[in-house]
Amino acid sequence: MIVLGAILLILGFVLHISILWTIGIILLVIGAVFWILGSTGRAVGGRKVWY
């Protein structure tokens, strides 16, 4: 999710499409939160490991 957010963020910046920029930021934040919660050993969505 972090990688997809970064790709959309870059595409939105290069192509000057604000919706891609916004979605990219949202995905980066959500991905970072999931990554932090997963690294602390806390279950996210009922699962401890996301594949």
Automatic annotation (TrEMBL):
* Protein name as catalogued: Hydrophobic protein
Q: Which UniProt keywords apply?
A: Membrane, Transmembrane, Transmembrane helix
Q: Where are the transmembrane segments?
A: 6-37
Q: Which InterPro entries does this UniProt record tie to the protein? A: DUF6131
